[in-house]
Amino acid sequence: MSDESPRQRFRVIRGDDPTSHGDDPPHPASHQYAPGTFRQLFDLTGRVALVVGDGGGLGRAIAAGLADFGARLAIADLDPAAAAATAEMCERPGIACPAVQLDVTNPVMVREVVEQLESLCGRIDILVNAAGVQARKPATEYTPEEWRWIIDTNLSGVFYVTQAVGRGMLARGYGRVLSIGSGSSLLGHPYHVPYAASKGGLAIMTKALATEWGPRGVTVNAIGPTYTETNLTRGFADDPGTRQRLIAEIPLGRLGTPEDLVGAAIFLCSDAGRFVTGQTLFVDGGRTAD
Prior knowledge:
By secondary structure, this protein is of the alpha/beta class. It is 37% helix and 12% strand. It is built from eight helices and seven strands; from the N terminus they run αβαβαβαβαβαβααβ. It has helices spanning 6-9, 58-68, 80-90, 107-121, 144-172, 193-213, 240-248, 262-269; strands at residues 48-52, 72-77, 99-101, 126-129, 175-180, 218-225, 280-283. It has a seven-stranded parallel β-sheet with strand order 3-2-1-4-5-6-7, sandwiched between helices. Helix 4 runs parallel beside helix 5. The two termini are 43 Å apart.
């Protein structure tokens, strides 16, 4: 056992240590990174991003984040007024942001709108699928129309848009696809059956597309929020007892906000996430950690 104290064994190997030699060779397994090597990892300057669906606020926050990091935005939504409002918010000096109406459940309209936007913008590098609907009730009370409405919007609609945009991405050998999933793809929530089915399908569709498109330069990922302060939870989460019950299930002690998703979205849409694909990144305050 050494007679040296921990303080005596501590030795600065660079800087002010007089025993340090500036010409010491680097460790054989080390890499040399010049200052600033990673500074641009999140920069989206020159990229064109299409955000589909205001997402009750999720799509709008992500669109604003993409614009702040330099992307040129195009916004599509079933509600043309919502699309126009988000587009106006995302415009930057000298960079216009087109807004279009889009029903994601209509595959013919999806193809036409995507073709128009590609012609207008030159290409689409980033796709964010944020359109989504929800209806809460006992499983025995859903009508066939309600089931189809939720599945057609949350699952089929995401596929139609991703398929249409993906053709151009694959042809160019580059693309980032990001969809809004849910903790419901992993956890069994009561009164959520068609919604959970749609988000579970989205999670595995994300994996399947990632394995198929990865070799051609396109990453496909999803973000899984917990209960978040949006139009989809308004009313449901406004009841004080329900709200406290939901918060009690989240280790960080609050509901999510649309802004909580922005960092994860920028990561997965930028070069910072270039080696990540086929994943659902749960931004959920720790709810799925248990």
